[in-house]
Write a structure and sequence with these properties.
The complex is a heterodimer of chains A (117) and B (115). Chain A is an all-beta fold. Chain A is built from no helices and eleven strands. Chain B is built from no helices and eleven strands. In chain B, the strands form two sheets. In chain B, strands 2, 4, 5, 6, 9, 10 and 11 form a seven-stranded mixed beta sheet that branches. The chains are: A mainly beta (117), B mainly beta (115). At the A-B interface, strand 4, strand 5 and strand 10 of A face strand 4, strand 5, strand 9 and strand 10 of B.
């Protein structure tokens, strides 16, 4: 039972255009969401995050949108650059950082973004 | 800032031996560290959560006696794979988080191959 779903295994976008990566989740207890970028044989690199009290967070070329009612979030990259080619993971966690319970991240399977020159 | 290192990056061992993987937060104090595992073409799966000075919390299906976790200081956590078998071959990644912070910062990962 996958609680975080990234339904597109891969996405090809032309350089300079907008890349939109999608993520859906099923666990209504999730209230903090993160996007990570990962190259082969390396650990994920944090990109951007959003709390459920917001519906948008922007950082430079990266914007994350959250639609809580639809349990959907997306990452927009604009303009896309060749260096953006990587696997992008959506991750989520429930509330309560200091609650003491297990609060590791639940990851999607990733979307391989390919930026074409 | 927020650099996490892992050592070793690669390890090959014989079946039945034990392997220790270190995870260090280099420029911050990690009150919580997490260990994940990633099989080829799969997502990262959380194995366990460890808080400094206390016992690790393991996810369902992860054997605590096989995957020993020690988080003795605010900058170091270790994962020991005991009596490793070929099915334990995987990419092991740790992450670290400071108290009160939401973001987890990941190490570069350790690729384990058990022959």
């Amino acid at each position: 039972d996958q609680q975080v779903k990234q339904n597109s295994p891969s996405l090809s976008v032309q350089e300079g255009r907008i890349s939109i990566l999608n993520c859906d989740y099923t666990n209504s207890m999730f209230d903090y969401f993160l996007w990570y970028k990962k190259y082969p044989a390396e650990g994920p690199t944090f990109l951007i995050s959003i709390s459920s009290i917001k519906d948008k967070n922007e950082d430079g070329r990266f914007t994350v949108f959250l639609n809580k009612s639809a349990k959907h979030l997306s990452l927009h990259i604009v303009p896309s650059q060749p260096g953006d080619s990587a696997v992008y993971f959506c991750a989520a966690r429930p509330e309560s950082v200091s609650g003491g319970g297990a609060d590791g991240l639940t990851f999607g399977k990733g979307t391989h973004l390919i930026i074409q020159p | 800032g927020a650099v996490v290192s892992q050592h070793p990056s690669w390890v090959i061992c014989k079946s039945g031996t034990s392997v220790k993987i270190e995870c260090r937060s280099l420029d911050f104090q990690a009150t919580t560290m997490f260990w994940y595992r990633q099989f080829p073409k799969q997502s990262l799966m959380l194995m366990a959560t460890s808080n400094e000075g206390s016992k690790a919390t393991y996810e369902q299906g992860v054997e605590k006696d096989k995957f020993l976790i020690n988080h003795a200081s605010l900058t170091l956590s270790t994962l020991t794979v005991t009596s490793a078998h070929p099915e334990d071959s995987s990419f092991y990644i740790c992450s670290a988080r400071h108290r009160g912070q939401e973001t987890q910062y990941f190490g570069p990962g350790t690729r384990l191959l058990v022959l």
